[in-house]
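Revision sheet: structure tokens.
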Amino acid sequence: MNALLLPPPLSTTNRFLRHRNLYQPLPQSLSSSTFHISHSHLRASPSFSSSPFLSEDDTITQDAVVSLYPHRRYDFSPLLQFLSTYNSDSETSDSNSPTSLDQTELRLAESYRVVPGPLWHSLLKFLTSSSTSSFEIAYALVTWLQKHNLCFSYELLYSILIHALGRSKKLYEAFLLSQKQTMTPITYNALIGACARNDELEKAINLMNRMRREGYQSDFVNYSLIIQSLVRSNKIDSVLLEKLYAEMISDAIELDGQLLNDIVLGFAKSGDVDRAMYFLGVIQGKGMNPRTSTVVSLILQLGNLGRAEEAEAIFEEIKEGGVIPRTRAYNAVLKGYVKNGSLKDAESIVSEMEKNGVSPDDHTYSLLIDAYGNVGRWESARIVLKEMESNNVKPNSLVFSRILASYRDRGEWQKTFKVLKEMQKCGVKPDRQFYNVMIDTFGKYNILDHVMATVERMKVDGIEPDTVTMNTLIDCYCKSGDHKKAENLFDEMQQRGCLPCTTTYNIMINSFGQQEKWVDVKHLLGKMQSEGLLPNVVTYTTLIDVYGKSGRYTDAIECLEVMKSAGLKPSLTMYNALINAYAQRGLSNQAANTFRIMTSDGLKPSNLALNALINAFGEDRRDVEAFAVLQYMKENSVKPDVVTYTTLMKALIRVEKFSEVPRVYEEMVSYGCTPDGKARATLRSALRSANRKTSDLITCDTRYIYRLLRM
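Predicted:
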């Protein structure tokens, strides 16, 4: 065997390392072994490919670095020893040219002259995957190879180093290193990957745009890494994802299985489940199987939206494909039924779990408790708690948080103390989330003494309020009208080092807007953006609502346009707020125009928007148009509710058409709407107004009217 085993080199004074302090002793893990690299092994292992696109699993073990060709081996120990023992005094050297080197270094370089490039790549990958000190030797190796012209694909060598720095979260060093070579597609891709792995998305996207301007095409791996980073950092947005997808199509990027799975997961996490299901169909249409984790995430998001039937359909599909669902998949479907209020289906899912030998976990039980709590079956919820204990699943604070939230939503805040006693009986201590729900419960019903008492108890238990706690407190005082206290809490929050989030700013913008402190509103928006927090849909909805209620319609419309230009899609809630603001002032033309914009944006009108539009026409004494909206509702399968008919009756009263009010009331009853107190009061008001106007009652049977009132 023709092995090159050279003696340890003599000391040299020539400088060839120019990157920080790279002069470290050879690490024990490297010095204890002789390094041999094999070409035959490289061909057998995709990890040793010279491909510029490095995967997360692209690592090399020492055992893998063995034999080149059947009859030839290269020993790199002398070279590594030379690189590790080169001392910093060499910085005084005045030249980097090979002619200035002593003969020992020249002989060392010549001994490796015939080593093929892929072997240098493999050695470099091994060094960068070993340790920090090995990485320093790896950099010295690249510099030495470049100095002696021993390997000509230097861009690949630098991309390997950039890739390793990215994995080690040394992004600054990766950017410094990228500047030592002219940027090529290989180094661009490595740097983009490093940015994405470190969640520096803006830098990654800027680099991709720069690549495109220079005429280079980005790699499909980069898109996967960027989407993964968006999901990981919870910054995923369907609009941004659509832009990335449009770029992929423009760049003719081939969508492989990994990228398609990432796209499905991205759209699911952003809440755009329709697009997620479309791309799931693309995966299946290509004859590929989606990852189980991707499908489960989609099922979970469908469950969150209450689309239980679709969630179960996908669930059944993966079962038919031979996948055995585990607890997380069952919980995803269960959540859909709980959200939908389908108690029987929820119980059926849990029964199926147990039948198939899948053990329910604490999340399963907490969802089932939610289902019982939503219909007021508290004894059944207690039975679930006992079942948890019998199955050795200890109830946690999350379970009791859900029970408390159910009481809160049903208006039974007094049972908060009952939940606390039950927790103590089970040996469960309240955590921060439970206290946050407790504070929100008392705040919702304006019991501010209990709110502050809960905060003090929380601190006694050694739990410091977090951003969610402070948001809840600030919101409580805003809703109670104590805006000064809310401002004090906002200031206190920042003084304690608890950073406000977008939700915090949204609450404070609403508070200042209600007080018509427009300078403070603009100051908050500027402060929010200076802290790197971008306004979201809720921010713009809040602004439009407060501007609209104050009659600042120009500002409201401007917010709508700014939002659209930022790539955000206006919500129904936003349009409802604007239509309602116009309605309050009888500006029916503006309300109707906003309604037209809403429908042109592809949003299906809700009862809330249509009722507001009826109100706008009613306030403007345009009863014919108000009834035209009722006809529109019937023709477009939007069921009128008691608010619809009550608003129409008010419109008739405003134009003094009292005799037509009972007919509307009767239609409401025949349509299946149960009259409430406001509807009955409106009918009585019509009767009184008619009596004051004329000496006779409304031209219909008095007994008939009283019969209507008893409905």
